[in-house]
Amino acid sequence: MNEMSGASGRPEGSGRDLLGAGGGALAVPVRGLAPLTDAGGASGASGGFDVNDLLRVLLKWKWLILGVVAACTGLAVLYTVTATRIYRGAATIEINTDPTSIMGDEDKSDRPIRSSDQFMQTQYGLLKSRALADRVQRMLGLSHVHDLDVTPVRGSSLIELAYEDPDPARAAQVANAFANGFIDDSLERRYNATAFARNFLQNRLASTREKLEASERQLVAYAQSKGIVQLDSGGSDDGGGGKDGGGSSGAAGGSGDSLSSQSLVALNTALSQAISDRIAAEQRYHQAVANKSSGDVLDNPTVQALRSERVKLNADYQQGLTTFKPDYPEMVSLKSRIDQIDRDLAHESTDVSASLRSAYDAAVGREAALRAQVASLRSNVLDLRNRGIGYNILERDVETNRQIYNALLQRFKEIGAGGGIGESIASVVDTAITPTAPWRPRPILNVAIGLLGGLVLGLGIAFGIEFVDDTIKSPEDVAAKLKVPLLGLIPRIAKTSSLVQDLADPRSEVAEAYYSVMTALQFVTNEGLPKTILMTSSRAAEGKSSSSLALAQNLARIGALVLLVDADMRKPSFKSKASETLGLSSLLTTDQSVMNHVVATDVPRLSLLSSGPIPPNPAELLSSGRIRRIIEEASEQFDVVVVDAPPVLGLADAPMLSSICEATVVIVEAASVRRPVVLNSLARLSAAQARIAGVVLTKYNPKTAGYGYGYGYGYGYGQRYGHDTDQTPMLEVNS
């Protein structure tokens, strides 16, 4: 084995100082990178809506969306051209929530209050009923009638009835038939609904009339048998009567009076007056006896004349005394005449008292006579009332039967007069006219629906595919789905090129992309570029070994001593002629120095530690503490050690190696590996205490990811894409 040239001593200017945070060209900040972190703590984009994601999906699936839109539009046009022309006739009717009277004599006071909404919903149902459709079908002689389109006019009691048919005249005819048929059907239904009521009332009237006649005959017979004479009082139909010389008080207690009742009332009135007269006569008599100057005496004309004459004579006598003495003859004559007048006044007072006594006695006698008559009539009235109890019962029965009969007769007359057609439920506002243009198909609407439907369907398919496809396709997916930093994007290699050729050209897209990855790794630790870097992936063929080679080569080009360790002892990617005896597997089973197994390559400052002979149990070899000492020894001899590890899933090699290296870089093939697979790999690495630096997205195609405008570093990055490269180019070594 030839040892690496210059391995015994480092060239001037080489070493870790070239890779530090402040060293040379690498000391360029890389925007958007996060510090070294594990899988669970990496920063990422929020899960909210992003316009860039929307544009990416639209650009990615634009041809699918346009194709679906074109197909749907074509179907709409085809349907419009081939569809049968359908004409639409429409009539408008008004539903009367407060129906108008046709007969003009209906009483609306006892109508139940209608709920407007419930009433209108009922009418909609009747318009769509099968019975109305059958009526129209029979009316027009049609074989069938399709469903009627009933459309209420918002905010009104108007309803539009529309019917569609290939024949324009028939469309208008059927719409008008529905409108008129609805009105006729409503009136007919109401008329039929009163038929039972009419028959019922007629039967009840007959039976009630018989009961009324029987009760009247029974009342008359009872009155005759009991001698009750009914008198009419104030136009009343009922009352009591009497017999035998004047009768008694009202037997029925109604509005009418019997003969006895009338007599008793008259006698009671006369008795009351007689009592008043007797009391007045008694008072006048006693006053006249006690006082001669009572009012009755003074009011007597004779007494008044005598008293006037006496006053005159007394005046003459008093005047004569002034001239003559009392014994003078003329004076004696005047005195004699005055005394005679006094005697006459006393006599007249006695006569007045006697007259008052006679009047008083007469009043007492009249009162006694009236009292006797009232007592006699009272007994007769009480007897009549006892006899009138049965009469009253029969009379009330007659009145009840008469009221029932009159009510039934009145209701029967109302129903018979109106016949159930007293209310007009609806009226025709506009009749349907024969349409001149087809209602369907509508070309503009159909094309618009086709365009809109195609757009919605295309977008739905595109976003559905995106939703189902949970592979990592773009930088946004790395941040949103994996929550780890993105170290770089590696474009897919063109068909006409190879990895070796692209890496050999520093201006190639691939070389510039790996330079960006190298620059990003410089900032994952506080000291700068990690001394030991593990390169792994979730599964094979994701570009892990190619990335290891590219990173190691770029580091060597900037002056760093780099060792590339092929730690995949199951499927090695880098071989040399000495790989059959030298390599990592041999170091793990011996105590030899690392430098004894390192070989130089054709890239200056880049050395290779191959995997060596393939052992039967690689995991057991790596589980020993020997691998840690090998990595530590290599990091002492080289500026950077790049370890190409096996895939994570299904193997224990990568997690064990990641716990030893300072940084772990996970390689993810774009649009190939599903999110759960990568997350599982990150979780296994985190469980092994790996320091995950970030993710490198390889074989990236901007157009496939939905970025038609390009995405990446350098000139024209993302403008070309090619085939997948399953084999990593062999690293040429100096052996």
Summarize this, please?
The chain has 20 helices and 13 strands.
Please provide a written account of the structure:
The protein is of the alpha/beta class and 735 residues long. 50% of the residues lie in helices and 11% in strands. The strands form 2 sheets. The chain has a 9-stranded mixed sheet, sandwiched between helices. Helix 2 runs antiparallel to helix 10, helix 4 (130-140) crosses helix 5 and helix 13 (509-521) packs across helix 14 (544-557). The radius of gyration is 67 Å and the shape is elongated.
Low-confidence stretches: 1-47, 101-105, 233-257, 708-730
- Computed structural class: alpha/beta
Strand count, sense and closure of the main sheet? 9 strands, mixed
Give the CATH architecture of the domain at 469-721: 3-Layer(aba) Sandwich
| Overall pLDDT score | 78
CATH topology of the domain at 469-721: Rossmann fold
Give the C-alpha Rg.
Answer: 67 Å
Shape: elongated
Strand order of the largest sheet: 5-12-11-6-10-7-9-8-13
User: How large is the share of residues in beta strands?
Assistant: 5-15%
Question: How many β strands by DSSP?
Answer: 13
Quaternary assembly = single chain
Q: N-to-C terminal Cα separation, in Å?
A: 6 Å
**Count of alpha/pi helices:** 20
